[in-house]
Design brief:
Number of strands: 0
Structural class: mainly alpha
Distance between the termini: 54 Å
Number of helices: 10
CATH class: Mainly Alpha
CATH superfamily: CRISPR-associated protein Cse2
Number of domains: 1
Radius of gyration: 18 Å
Order of helices and strands: HHHHHHHHHH
Strand content: under 5%
CATH topology: Peroxidase, domain 1
Length: 181
């Protein structure tokens, strides 16, 4: 799927942001035996011959309906980094895992349809913390997760998750080093 396709999809979802009834229907996309309720709203984007694509779009639409706070920057790795509290950041600096970093690695290890539940858990956590989600990028990444692009997506997510924290650690270490002069 192209970036233009996912941008159009997210713009369409944003158009429903104030319609509580439609958002309730979109949330059903996250429930296995009720996902077909989303078909009338999403049919212009769904390819009924591609079940993975359908589930990916229903998942993104359902997550958007739960947490419509959107951004145009970052990817899922950056979102997960923003979920980290200071204790977990300190653990990560020591090479240890906390709950968010563990769930992030769990998402990176997902095969096929497993990605949907793993992303869902962390996006719903972002809702609790009121952290916006880049739904265009998330839709693009999830749609391509089941393809040869998966490894590139994982690397991009990892870069945003660990390089952001590595950059902060480096800045702190340099600052501390300069204070001894």
């Amino acid at each position: 799927m192209s970036q233009t396709f996912t941008e159009g999809f997210v713009q369409y979802l944003q158009g429903m942001k104030s319609d509580r009834g439609k958002l309730a229907i979109l949330r059903k996309g996250l429930i296995e035996n009720q996902a077909q309720a989303t078909w009338p709203l999403l049919s212009r984007f769904l390819n009924f011959d591609k079940p993975y694509q359908m589930k990916a779009l229903q998942t993104v639409a359902g997550l958007f309906a739960h947490h419509p706070k959107n951004t145009n920057t970052g990817n899922f790795g950056k979102l997960c980094y923003q979920l980290l509290d200071s204790d977990e950041k300190q653990k990560m600096a020591k090479g240890e895992l906390g709950p968010i970093s563990r769930n992030f690695q769990y998402a990176l290890a997902a095969n096929g349809d497993e990605i949907f539940a793993r992303v869902k858990r962390l996006v719903l956590r972002a809702k609790r913390d009121e952290i916006p989600v880049n739904y265009v990028q998330l839709a693009q990444d999830i749609l391509n997760w089941n393809s040869y692009k998966k490894e590139k997506i994982k690397l991009e997510w990892g870069k945003q998750f660990w390089m952001v924290s590595a950059g902060e650690e480096t800045v702190e270490a340099v600052s501390e080093g300069n204070s001894d002069d």
